Protein: YtxH domain-containing protein
Amino acid sequence: MRKLLWFGAGVAVGYFVGTRGGQKAYDDLVVAAQKIMDHPTVQEVAGVLQEQAVRLVDEGKRKLASS
Structure:
């Protein structure tokens, strides 16, 4: 449910920026999002999540191979 709310909020912001804000507001939003994505903490979390995903895929492959 929480993910759906975040998705809905993203759609609403995107709609607002796209229809009312114009190119300047869109560019400002892109710059702000890029700053967030470049933040060291966000990069660290992304790395951890990627490692976990790789581990889970490897475990799934091993379980399928052993079946």
